[in-house]
Specification:
The chain is α+β, with helices and mostly antiparallel strands and 316 residues long. It has 10 helices and 9 strands. Helix 8 packs across helix 9.
């Protein structure tokens, strides 16, 4: 459907209960506002409660300020699209948000002895999950894919730009004189690729510095929650929780990658905490004005903290 027909999705498109309905629209309802969302809401709640038809909204229009796209309805997953060639892949990604993950369960198979999973979106680590025994992971695998990581993959798919192609390169110098030389060079490329794949994608999770807080202890086990340093300019930062034994061995781990907006809010809270919630000193440390700091606090959704900061300044 085009942008105009998104005002009221044609019931004829739903009459024969298609497997999938794709709506291409800028997300704006006109004359009157709201009918597209209402049609889709009633269809979902009254006519198709079992979700036999998958509905996906594809929006080619990005907001200039937030570089996000407008949704048609809360019940319909929306995917922004830059290139028409990406349509098929984006529709599949968007369906994760609806829990239509039967194909995902087939693709994300369980390996013998598997105790956890690393979830990547465009070769960037989105989340890590580890449990102590393969039987524990086997019991949790379907719910992780269907209930937890579906929305995660859908959201993180929009964090970065296009992924460059990574191709093997064998230098055709004078050292390649026989088929055995070529075979050895190809195997060297395979080993290099495996080494990079196993270490580089998770490097920012494993090598970063964190602040840990022990929130619970039982016997020889401790539950920890950890936060990143919230440094501006570092796009991949993670929060999470872990359970360790008395030797520091991990019995449970769950992490989530933060968005850039979440990193900015965490950075702002850290700076306020470092200066005892004094707005004047925090503004000076950030190299900005008092008025601009107040604006940033409000835009981050922390307006309730302004009273606390003003009271600290009054006491000083």
């Amino acid at each position: 459907m085009g942008a105009d027909s998104a005002r009221h999705p044609d019931p004829d498109a739903l009459e024969h209960s298609p497997e999938r309905l794709v709506i291409v629209s800028d997300g704006w309802d006109n004359a009157p506002p709201g009918p597209a969302g209402e049609v889709l809401r009633v269809w979902r709640t009254r006519l198709d409660p079992d979700r036999s038809t998958s509905v996906v909204h594809v929006n080619p229009v990005y907001d200039a300020d937030g570089f996000d796209v407008r949704r048609l309805a809360p019940s319909v997953p929306t995917a922004g699209i830059r290139d028409a060639e990406d349509l098929a892949a984006l529709v599949e990604i968007a369906q994760f948000a609806e829990g239509r993950t039967g194909e995902a369960l087939r693709i994300f198979e369980i390996h013998p002895g598997q105790c956890g999973v690393l979830v990547y979106a465009a070769d960037s680590l989105a989340a890590a999950f580890v449990v102590p025994h393969p039987a524990d992971y086997r019991a949790l695998h379907p719910s992780l894919i269907e209930d937890l990581y579906g929305e995660l993959v859908h959201q993180y798919a929009f964090y970065g730009g296009p992924v460059p192609d990574f191709e093997a390169r064998i230098r055709d110098g004078g050292h390649l004189k026989t088929l055995a030389d070529l075979r050895a060079a190809a195997r060297a490329q395979e080993r290099a690729w495996a080494g990079n794949h196993d270490t580089l994608p998770a490097a920012r999770l494993l090598d970063a510095s964190y602040s840990f807080e022990r929130v619970y202890a039982m016997g020889s086990f401790s539950l920890w929650r950890f936060l990143p340093p919230f440094r501006r300019g570092e796009s991949e930062q993670h929060i999470g929780e872990a359970i360790t034994d008395h030797k520091g061995r991990v019995a449970y781990l769950k992490t989530f990658r933060l968005s850039e907006a979440q990193i900015r809010r965490g950075h702002l809270l850290n700076r306020l905490h470092d200066h005892d919630w004094h707005l004047g000193r925090t503004a000076e440390a950030l190299g900005t004005s008092y008025a601009d700091l107040v604006r940033r606090i409000r835009s981050a959704g922390f307006e309730s903290l302004l009273k606390q900061g003003v009271e600290r300044m009054a006491r000083d």
